[in-house]
Amino acid sequence: MGRKKKKNLFRYIYILFVLLLVFFLVVILASSIIRYKVNLNELNQVKKQYEELKEKYEKNLIIYEKLKMLREGRK
């Protein structure tokens, strides 16, 4: 009987260990998915800000070029 109880004890310990590893895997996967979604939202916000600044820069560059041409035309 003593050997059988030891085998059952090791079996339960092994099952608990495997369940613990599976639990950690699920937690890591869930946190990775959440982190990915947060980073994706931040990326989209930065992309939007970049496009807005790019448009403003291009407009200002066109105005600068026009003023530069006017200045050269006066000389």
From TrEMBL:
TM region(s), chain numbering: 12-34
Residues forming coiled coils: 33-67
Keywords, alphabetical: Coiled coil, Membrane, Transmembrane, Transmembrane helix
Protein name as annotated: Uncharacterized protein
